[in-house]
Specification:
By secondary structure, the chain is an alpha/beta fold. The chain has two domains: 10-123, Rossmann fold (3-Layer(aba) Sandwich); 139-442, Rossmann fold. The chain has helices at residues 18-30, 60-63, 84-96, 126-130, 139-142, 159-168, 183-198, 217-227, 241-246, 248-268, 288-302, 328-337, 356-369, 386-396, 449-460, 473-483; strands spanning 10-14, 35-40, 50-51, 54-57, 74-77, 101-104, 122-123, 150-154, 175-180, 206-211, 231-234, 273-279, 312-318, 320-322, 342-344, 350-351, 353-355, 375-378, 384-385, 407-409, 427-431, 437-442. A nine-stranded mixed beta sheet has the order 10-9-8-11-12-13-18-22-21, with helices on both faces. Strand 1 (10-14), helix 1 and strand 2 form a beta-alpha-beta unit. It starts with 9 loop residues before the first strand and ends in a 13-residue tail after the last helix. 43% of the residues are buried.
């Protein structure tokens, strides 16, 4: 977040477009961050002119090494539409030119047209250089369906939930409910959003933190009746694969029965839109987490016939996101900074990756154009080999893979696959007219979700006469494997 700089710091802004000009005006107005001494740009029409009274120098690769610098100098990359390839080029040009501090303003997926703020600038991160070129969504237009509405985000303190919250500041929503069961994470995103608002980001929105449990069905009915939410984005889930393999009953109770509680409460209280965030691990699931998300998808899709004409409950599925808590990007970062080795499960393991901001902007777009009971799939591009990702990150921090930082292969962890798929054999991908948003059409017979939930309840919830199966992992595995034969059941599964 915002930091006070030395008043004599010299700031170079890369990009003299709308974002760069907005940042320069804000620095000048506040007068405590240093002084912008030049724009650096590659546009021949701008080079040699003055914008906002500031000279424009370029081309960037020709002038960056000619700048006189001292340790307080800073570069801010203000090119929201730049590709990851362009950002990589700029980053290494600046690093080789001796810049110690390099910040970046949000990508086009995160800012409303014409609005960029200094408070949004942050230290450049490996994920900025690893993602693909973002698609220009046009947040103001795509979020119009939420203007004046009350929006609730479950798991608001998580990686996806918090980014949805940031983007929703620009939606003109009447109230933004930050729902979660972890007070610290909800506190942090609540505090961040209020700071962003104080610095001029977004519109006037009432931010309301709500601490609660999805697993408490009575509470969910009560709280949704009180909050009168118009739309819900359901991101809350236990999602760490090996941890959920060790705690399978908790995964099902939270991810499956919690989703059931939310959906039933939303139906009962007249919520108009509900969007479930799902994962590629729900495709022919081999792990308990994947099985829980498969069942959560079925719960949302199963209520299609119960929806009113103006109600739209849907699922949006995508793969991994770069930089989420507990993902490999933060893990690799800590391993690199401690001298290695960087641990990779399998030399040929691949995953589909998308940046968190792009995923969230597409989720918000889909929430407005999607229809009831449908399953949508975000276009993830080509899969990325984890080994290649590790090598790129090692180079980002100035080391050479193999020579300076060793890569160690540790084998697949419980529940993991070498490759992930985005759709099952019985799911056909149907393009929509919206960029990077596809619809999935299932050809398989209807899944007996009500029967599965009935079998899972006595395992997850205490019931008279079912004491022998309560919290019993073997009983859980038997139920899941009966309906999801792709699930890998451990050979020596303990009873509890």
């Amino acid at each position: 977040m915002k930091q006070i700089e030395r008043e004599d710091a010299r700031i170079y802004i890369l990009g003299a477009g709308f974002a760069g000009r907005a940042i320069a005006r804000e620095i000048r107005a506040k007068g405590v961050f240093g002084a912008v001494v030049a724009f650096l740009d590659d546009d021949p029409a701008k080079i040699g002119n003055r914008i906002e009274g500031i000279p424009v120098l370029g081309p960037i690769k020709d002038v960056v090494n000619l700048l006189s610098r001292h340790p307080a100098d800073e570069a801010i990359i203000a090119m929201p539409s730049a590709s990851s390839e362009k950002l990589r080029e700029l980053y290494f040009l600046l690093k080789n030119a001796g810049f110690q501090r390099i910040r970046i303003v949000p990508g086009i997926a995160q800012i409303v047209e014409g609005e960029a703020h200094l408070v949004q600038a942050r230290e450049i991160d490996p994920q900025d250089l690893l993602g693909r070129t973002p698609v220009a969504i046009g947040l103001k237009e795509s979020l119009a369906y939420l203007r004046g509405k009350r929006v609730l985000i479950t798991g608001a303190g998580g990686s996806i939930g918090s980014e949805l919250s940031r983007q929703l500041l620009s939606a003109g929503v009447a109230r933004l409910y930050l729902f979660g069961h972890g007070e610290n994470s909800v506190y942090q995103i609540d505090r961040e959003l209020r700071l962003l608002q104080a610095e001029g980001v977004g519109e006037k929105t009432s931010i309301v933190p709500v601490i609660g449990e999805l697993k408490d069905g009575a509470y969910m009915r009560f709280i949704l009746d009180r909050l009168k939410a118009d739309a819900i984005f359901h991101t809350a889930a236990y999602k760490h694969v090996p941890m959920m393999e060790a705690n399978p009953v908790a995964a099902i109770e939270n991810n499956v029965l919690g989703t059931r509680n939310l959906v039933e409460a939303a139906l009962a209280t007249g919520v108009k839109r509900l969007v479930l965030i799902s994962t590629d691990k729900a495709v022919e699931p081999s792990c308990v987490y994947g099985a829980s998300k498969f069942l959560a998808e079925r719960i949302v899709m199963d209520v299609r016939e119960r929806l009113a004409p103006d109600q739209h409950f849907m699922v949006v599925r995508f793969g991994n996101v770069l930089g989420s808590r507990g993902s490999i990007v933060p893990l690799f970062r800590s391993q690199i900074l401690s001298g290695g080795p960087v641990t990779v499960t399998h030399p040929e393991a691949t995953r589909f990756f998308m940046t968190i901001p792009e995923a969230c902007s597409l989720v918000l777009k889909t929430g407005g154009v999607g229809s009831g009971g449908q399953l949508y799939l975000l276009d993830m591009g080509e899969p990325v080999r984890i080994r290649d990702l590790a090598e790129q990150m090692i180079r980002f921090y100035g080391y050479e893979p193999g020579r300076d930082i060793r890569i160690e292969y540790i084998g697949l962890r419980p529940g993991e696959k070498v490759f992930e798929n985005l759709n099952a054999k019985d799911e056909a991908i149907v393009p929509t007219k919206y960029p990077r948003v596809n619809r999935l059409e299932r050809t398989a017979p209807a899944f007996p979700i009500a029967q599965v939930l009935q079998a899972l309840e006595p395992i997850c919830l205490p019931q008279e006469g079912s004491e022998k199966v309560y919290r019993n992992r073997r009983a859980l595995s038997a139920v899941l494997n009966k309906f999801l034969p792709t699930l890998k059941v451990p050979e020596h599964e303990p009873e509890y």
